[in-house]
Amino acid sequence: MPTAVTARNHATAAPPRRASAFRAIAPEAAEMPLYRVVKRALLQAIEDGTYPPGAALPNETALAATFGVSIGTLRHAVDELAADHILVRRQGRGTFVASHNADRSVFQFFHIERADGLREAPTVELLGFERARLDEDAAQALGAPAGEACFAIETRLALQGRAVAYDRIVIPAALFRGLTEKRLRDRPSTIYHLYQTEFGITVVRAHERLRAISADRTVARVLGLPHGAPVLQVRRTALTFGDKPVEHRVSTVNTSHHDYVNLLTRPI
């Protein structure tokens, strides 16, 4: 996993952008459909920093020729990576490695919207930041030993001037060396953008479990609700490449004026 220094070097250096970063695939050696082999090769190049966030991939014709596959096979692999928000196509410009920004946060990782369907980026207020130790719950979610060093972060999210969510975030200290409250508070974009640009950690997907609970005193105070009011609890494990867990988050959502909305899709 790249360190913060490595991530910054990726941003300032001129990494390879040529199709020659890849090698031809021997069809007879592949133990899976060719497009999956291509997809894995592209993912590896993104994960190891050969193509960092924001970098343009070689054009599809050049990539297909380098891999020794058809344009259709290459496009199948790119289509799946675009559907996973790892690549993004820009009309007339080409295909780029996706970067975390406010738009991506709203549409991929932030699922709260007003009951009338209005969706926008929330205002985020940092309530707490401290170095702590993983409890059993967070340790299990992160696949790490209980008691390991971590950072514990608390935030309040608001939409249209109304507090809608209270987030308690736990991340392993070993993955985010050098993180400080100032760096967190002064970040120019989303927290996932900070993970990506400062620590070389890209969140590509998340696993969530939802349940209805009653607001405890802390939640009631933060969200301005009566003690015991019904709220929605969302427990998220954020994953980077290779399904490695990098964040455990417990969000408590006030759904009196907002809904938790998710788009379910099936493979085509």
Produce a short descriptive summary.
The protein has 268 residues and is an alpha+beta fold. The protein is 30% helix and 29% strand. It is elongated.
Detailed description of the structure:
With 268 residues, this protein is α+β, with helices and mostly antiparallel strands. The protein is 30% helix and 29% strand. It has helices at 4-12, 34-47, 60-67, 71-83, 102-109, 136-142, 181-185, 191-199, 217-223; strands at 87-90, 94-97, 112-114, 123-133, 149-159, 162-172, 205-214, 230-240, 244-253, 258-260. The chain has a six-stranded antiparallel β-sheet. Strands 1-2 form a two-stranded antiparallel ribbon.
Notable features of this structure?
alpha+beta; 6-stranded antiparallel sheet; elongated; 2 domains; Arc Repressor Mutant, subunit A; two-stranded antiparallel sheet
Q: How many domains make up the 3D coordinates?
A: 2
The named CATH superfamily of the largest domain: Chorismate lyase-like
Termini separation comes to 33 Å
Main beta-sheet annotation: 6 strands, antiparallel
Q: Assign a percent range to the helix content.
A: 25-40%
Contiguous uncertain segments of 5+ residues: 1-17
Do you know the CATH architecture of the largest domain?
Answer: 3-Layer(aba) Sandwich
CATH fold-level assignment of the largest domain? Chorismate lyase
* Major sheet strand order: 4-5-6-9-8-7
Mean pLDDT: 87
Q: How is this fold's topology laid out?
A:
Layout: H1 4-12, H2 34-47, H3 60-67, H4 71-83, E1 87-90, E2 94-97, H5 102-109, E3 112-114, E4 123-133, H6 136-142, E5 149-159, E6 162-172, H7 181-185, H8 191-199, E7 205-214, H9 217-223, E8 230-240, E9 244-253, E10 258-260
Antiparallel strand pairs: 1-2, 3-10, 4-5, 5-6, 6-9, 7-8, 8-9
